[in-house]
Amino acid sequence: MANHYIKFYPVENGDTTLITLSDQTTILIDCKLRASAEDEKDKEKYDVKRDLLESIKKRDNNPFIDVFILTHPDQDHCLGFSKNFYCGDPSKYKKENRDNEEIIVDELWATSILFDVVTNDDAKALKKEAERRRKLWDQDSSEKDKPGNRICMIGYNGDEKFENVEAYVPGNTIIEINNKVQTNFEFFVHSPFKKTLITATSEKDKNYSSIVLQARFKINANDDDFATFFLFGGDADHYSWKEVLDKSKAHNNEDKLKWDIFLSPHHCSWTYFNDVPYDEKEENKTPKKSSLDILDYKVGKGKIVASSKVISKHDKNPPHWEAKQQYLKKLDSSDNFIELAKCPSEDEPKPVIFKITPQGPVKDDSKKQGSSVASAGGSLGAVKSKGEYGSETV
Question: Which of 96, 178, 237, 394 stands the most exposed, by the fewest C-beta atoms within 10 Å?
């Protein structure tokens, strides 16, 4: 029986996380693809693109991922997108694109801020691609639901939920991934909240408009319980996480805060715990109770992943040394705090892979994930899930 996997790539201050489900569905959360480390002397810069190509599927000999989730359009969350991912009509994907190993994104997930606040070139490319896909929905084109044209918006479009484009808002559970209903996996949407997207009008606002999701994994479709919970939220700060906590309590959704794996927000930044700069005010040095409380939803031993450069006492935030100390206080062992920049060594970091087992996530160092991924094609029909909060606006 096939397993689910979560792979965290070492990209210093940035995020690149690949979920591979047991049916080989692939979900990439953010990307930071720097120049490939083809020179073996440059072992500190892991070749993420090469590993991705070995880990994902092909259709008609063209590499593709089922879903790309952009938590927010900062450059360290979308670097290299325009160069490494195909943008445009998928029917026009040619030999040149294949020779360049451009990856097709069957379904793109983003928030409305992508249409409003973008400054870097990769975010602009993503915006253009999202607008192309959104136009197909606005026109009710027969092409809108084909792989490479699909789009799903997370959160609101101004005051209202997106009307024409498929969309999910806080309180929704997502069971449909790239037009295929999953029976042993789902996402729960925590944020961004409506008011955040409405007021996010500048570059500095992008972090607190980050998508926050809980990924929930089962081993078998008929299992009563989930085997693993993975909680992540881009660069969401302590204000956003407090609202996530408050809403979860108010709607009896505290189980949606559980985590076996927690991706430390903003690359182990102090912004998860309090305001920055850390030394500017004495009150900034005290972690917010809400941030600490979320860490108490740990399941079992729990594992916290820092997708950052090596954490040093002398570096400015992010990452932040004191943030690491706060995380360590919540863990049973320092071994469960995972610095990607130091795995397995600082001189030659490699991806950290977790296999989802009945006992929870187990670090898998035995093989290079991706070798067993076969070529795949079609998808099942669509089934919608109901929102956990019903029609209530949040």
Answer: 96
Alpha helices (H) along 189-347: 194-199, 238-250, 265-268, 289-295, 321-329
Domain-embedded: residue 382: no
Contacts 24+ apart (CB under 8 A), 322-325: 322/270, 322/273, 322/278, 322/285, 323/264, 323/268, 323/269, 323/270, 323/272, 323/273, 324/268
* Residue the block writes with tokens 């972090």: 207
Residues 6+ apart with CB under 8 A from 186: 173, 174, 175, 215, 216, 385
- Report how far residue 93's alpha carbon sits from residue 170's, in angstroms, rounded to the nearest whole number: 35
Q: Residue 372 falls within a domain, yes or no?
A: no
* Contact present, 68 and 106 (Cβ < 8 Å): no
End-to-end CA distance of the chain: give it in Å, rounded: 40
Q: Which domain holds residue 173?
A: 5-363
26-81 residue pLDDT tens: 999 999 998 754 444 455 689 999 999 999 999 999 999 999 999 999 999 999 99
Q: What are phi and psi of 92, to 5 degrees?
A: -100, 10
Listed in sequence order, the residues at least 6 apart from 73 whose beta carbon sits closer than 8 Å to its beta carbon are 110, 113, 114, 117, 118, 120, 123, 126, 127, 206
117 vs 206, residue with greater confidence: 117
What pLDDT is attached to residue 204? 55
> Is 384 a member of any domain?
no
Q: Are strands 228-232 and 212-217 parallel, antiparallel or unpaired?
A: antiparallel
CATH of the domain at 156: 3.60.15.10
- Out of 119-128, 164-173, 205-214, 297-306, least confident range: 205-214
Residues 170-197 as b/e (b if ≥16 CB within 10 A, e otherwise) read: bbbbbbbbbbbebebbbbbbbbbbbebb
Instruction: Tell me what the mean pLDDT of segment 343-367 comes to.
Output: 93
The pTM score is 0.92
For range 321-341, the mean pLDDT: 97
Q: How do strand 185-191 and strand 173-174 relate by DSSP bridges?
A: antiparallel
Number of domains present in the structure of the chain = 1
Phi/psi of residue 337, each to 5°? -100, 115
Q: Taking all residues of the chain, what is their mean pLDDT, rounded to a whole number?
A: 89
